[in-house]
Design goal:
The chain has 15 helices and twelve strands. The chain is of the alpha/beta class and 397 residues long. It folds into two domains: 255 residues, 3-Layer(aba) Sandwich (Aspartate Aminotransferase, domain 2); 133 residues, Aspartate Aminotransferase, domain 1. The strands form two sheets. Strands 1-7-6-5-4-2-3 form a seven-stranded mixed sheet, sandwiched between helices. The chain has a five-stranded mixed sheet with strand order 8-9-12-11-10. Strand 4, helix 7 and strand 5 form a beta-alpha-beta unit. The protein is globular and about 75 Å long. The N and C termini lie far apart (53 Å). It binds ligand LCS. Ligand LCS binds next to helix 4 and helix 5.
Length: 397
């Protein structure tokens, strides 16, 4: 990659070869794992200069680590951002970002339909800091405009959203946020930088649970935030240096490895998901399928405009409500009954009892997270095996 122009290369090539920045003088193809907590200084004067920020260098792995830095550099590169910071989890990425932007008395504007953990952060933890989250009543951009006021210090959206796959118009919502001079944060976990580039659509900050598609193998928890260098420097200082929510070097190495195969996995998972969505859409026991790739999805046109693929997560509702969902979820064989998404393995779960159990039953009803809603993260298995498992499980629903 030393002499090549990244603007001319395919995204898949960039994922494999990275931004071309050297990490090891040995020329190792795989970034080495710098499994160290601290770094020795040549002398005290050098140490003092590095602590004062007058000289670059590694001090301590809570501040910077070459493996973690390599991962951060690649994410910034793939997300078209100036800089990025890696975190211990997706939740740490969300929490540290919001805490960096809001002070007591401030508000954050979001939607109710987000990952259940994020919703719990909004409703439980941020309240302790006197930060209030207010909500647009629907994914429509106009609803965001209606809710803005001068105390709102950031807008936070997930698109596609967990678990209903609602699609939000990033460019339109960015325009509204900018009318009020506040940043738009997009949780890009479901789409990944391969299928969606929020910063190019006008967002200011993009973040991920890298536990999902970026890691891709269901073996590590992580998060990452990308944006302007000024914001990321500030976030690094608060969220990593002072609040300590760092990604370990080994996890960063797993995430770097995940990035290399991201496009291949995303394409396979999306192809499988489209076939599963069509199969479920025509199934007599299924009343509704939520997948942005289906024309019937209310966000299909926006998804076509702002995404390059529809990703591998879908949700569906069963005619028989909760009892049918329970029978089906207990009947899967190949597919695992498990939370998380974006793994090689296909995972199925029940949002009302699992990922979104922190919402009250009334809230879930209002948001369309019905007791008969089932979420499926379609993995990389052979499509015939997946359809056969779903068919036999639906037979028992
Ligand atoms: N953002 C989104 C969109 C998520 O789906 C999740 C986790 C997070 C942030 C938090 O990331 P974590 O701390 O778990 O790395 N979503 C999960 C889910 O749907 N099932 O299990 C976790």
């Amino acid at each position: 990659m030393k002499t090549m122009n990244p603007d001319k290369l395919d995204f898949a090539t960039l994922c494999v070869h990275g931004s071309g920045a050297p990490v090891s003088p040995t020329g190792a193809i795989s970034v080495p794992i710098f499994q160290t907590s601290t770094f020795a200084f040549r002398d005290l004067d050098t140490a003092a200069q590095e602590f004062a920020g007058e000289k670059p260098g590694y001090i301590y792995s809570r501040l910077q680590n070459p493996t973690t830095e390599a991962f951060e550099r690649e994410v910034a590169f793939l997300e078209h951002a100036e800089a990025s910071a890696a975190f211990a989890s997706g939740m740490a990425a969300v929490a540290m970002t919001l805490l960096a932007l809001a002070r007591p008395g401030d508000k954050i504007l979001s939607t109710h339909t987000v990952y259940g953990g994020t919703h719990a952060l909004f409703e439980e933890q941020l309240k302790k800091f006197d930060i209030e989250v207010i909500y647009a009543d629907s994914p429509d951009a106009a609803e965001f405009a209606a809710k803005m006021d001068s105390r709102v210090k950031a807008v936070f959206i997930e698109t596609p959203a967990n678990p209903t796959l609602a699609v939000l118009d990033i460019a339109a919502i960015a325009g509204i946020a900018h009318d009020w001079n506040v940043p738009l944060i997009v949780d890009n976990t479901f789409a990944t930088p391969y299928y969606q580039s929020p910063l190019q659509l006008g967002a200011d900050i993009v973040l991920h649970s890298t536990t999902k598609y970026i890691g891709g193998h269901g073996d590590a928890i992580g998060g990452v935030v990308a944006g302007s260098k000024t914001f990321i420097d500030d976030l690094r200082s608060s969220g990593l240096k002072e609040l300590g929510a760092i990604m370990s070097p080994f996890t960063a190495w797993l995430m770097l490895r995940g990035l290399k195969t991201l496009p291949v996995r995303m394409d396979r998972s999306s192809e499988n998901a489209m076939q599963v969505a069509k199969f479920l859409d025509g199934h007599e026991k299924v009343s509704r399928v939520h997948y942005p790739g289906l024309q019937s999805h209310p966000g299909h046109d926006i998804a076509r405009r702002q995404m390059r693929g529809f990703s591998g997560v879908l949700a569906f509702e069963l005619h028989g409500g909760f009892p049918a969902a329970e029978r089906m979820l207990n009947a899967v064989n190949l597919i695992s009954l498990a939370v998380s998404l974006g793994d090689c393995d296909t995972l199925i779960e029940h949002p009302a009892s699992m990922t979104h159990s922190s919402y009250s039953p009334e809230e879930r009803r209002e948001l369309g997270i019905s007791d008969g809603l089932v979420r499926l993260s379609v993995g990389l298995e052979g499509i015939d095996d997946l359809l056969a498992d779903l068919q036999q499980a639906l037979d028992k629903a």
